[in-house]
Structure formats: C-alpha cells, structure tokens
Amino acid sequence: MTDPTFRDDMTVQLVKHSAADEDVVFAARVSTKGAESLPTGTFGPAEKGLINFLMRDRHGSPFEHNSMTLYVEAPIFVLREWQRHRVASYNEESARYRELKPVFYLPADDRKVVQVGRPGRYTFEPGTRMQRYTARRSIEMSAYEAWAYYREMLGEGIAREVARSVLPVSIYSSMYVTLNARSLMHFLSLRTEEEAARFPSHPQREIAMCAEQVEAIFAELMPVTYAAFQANGRVAP
C-alpha cells in the first residue's frame, strides 16, 4: 500500500485563453460605433484611458468578452471555497469514478494557527511551537488513518463512492476553472489580502495562495486591465 505524501503548496496553471486588453476595448466601443468597433490592431493612450474609465465607473460587461481556463490542484477544502464563487465553470476530478492519490495538505511550519478575537474582528497569530506541532501532527496522523481505511474498503470491493466518505478535506483534488476577467477580478477582490484595496478582505491563507497565482496570470495576459483594477481600489466592475 502506498503511504500518504504531503504538500504545503497549491498549483494553478493557465491551460488556454482568449484574453487580451483589446477584447475590452472592442466590446465597449460597440455601444457607440456598432460594427466599426471590431479590433483594428491599434492600442494606445485612448484605449488605456477607456479601460480605466470603464473600471473606475464600473461599466462591467466589456470585461466579460474573454476567457481563461485554469488547472488547479489544491486540498478539497480550498476547492470548495473557490466553488462558492458562482461566477465560473468548474469540472473537478471525481472520487466516484477514480481512486484518489494519497496526497494531503500539511500546513508549513510558519502557517499561523491561532485565531484571536471574534468573527469579523480577529487576527491570526503564529501560536506557540507546541500548538504548531499539534496542528501538523494531528493533520498528518488523521491522513494516515483515513487513507488506511479507504484502501481497506477498496480492497474489500466496496464502491469508490462509498469508500471516499472517510477521506478528509485535506486530500488534494484537481479541477478546471473557466472564467472571464470580470469574474476573475471579483474572485481576487475577495480572496487576496491587499492594503491598497478599497474594501479590504481577509481570506483564509490557503485560498489566498491560489489567488496570488491567478493574479500573476491575469497581470501577464491583460496588463492594462490589471493596472486599472489596481489603480481603482481592486474593486470588480
């Protein structure tokens, strides 16, 4: 039997895309130019100004005429947080039809583990060395035990859809996410922690690790749109 292995990172990769700053411009200009709004190959100060205007005044629909597909590997509890954003299309691997791999999330030793304060007004603190040890050891041992029961049931011929019920949410799964820039900015506004944000958010660290990788992809594909998002308080239009 293969023993569990452990990770403390997340994977976010760009699979394919049709996304560029020009997409925003031609979609916006159809309002005033009709068919003449089709891309011309020119992109200068006027186009940059238009994107900033749309972002500032929250004219959101022009930011929807593009597409990005991402491949994500993360613990199940992170994927469930992500899927609460009902602004994307998701397809996740199914433990009904395939045996999951014995890969589990184990927080890095510097992950803050103690919550101080009440909901809505709290901070996370590193905790003592013993608290961090207890958290990591408990997660690790529960993964070993759950995996042993899972493999035992499969060995007895029990269906995967039944056997999976013993697996903890720390086990890794994978999914494809397809979304547009407007939806992506909505996700980033809630799942990143940025002092410059007009409406500060304090996401769980693990999904923020995913969001930071998504942000890097967005900034590379649509740099003008990303700059306008930053300049206008990281508010999704």
Describe this structure as you would to a colleague.
The chain is α+β, with helices and mostly antiparallel strands. The chain has a domain at 5-106 and 172-231: Gyrase A, domain 2 (2-Layer Sandwich). The protein has 8 helices and 8 strands; from the N terminus they run ββααβαββββααβααα. α1 (21-33) crosses α2 (45-56).
Distance between the termini: 51 Å
Q: Order of strands side by side in the largest beta sheet?
A: 2-3-8-4
Quickly give the CATH architecture of the domain at 5-106 and 172-231.
2-Layer Sandwich
How many individual helices?
A: 8
- CATH fold descriptor of the domain at 5-106 and 172-231: Gyrase A, domain 2
Order of helices and strands: EEHHEHEEEEHHEHHH
The total beta strand count reads 8
Q: What structural class do you assign from the helix and strand content?
A: alpha+beta
The CATH class of the domain at 5-106 and 172-231 is identified as Alpha Beta
| Percent helix | 40-55%
**Overall form:** globular
Q: Return the average pLDDT rounded to an integer.
A: 93
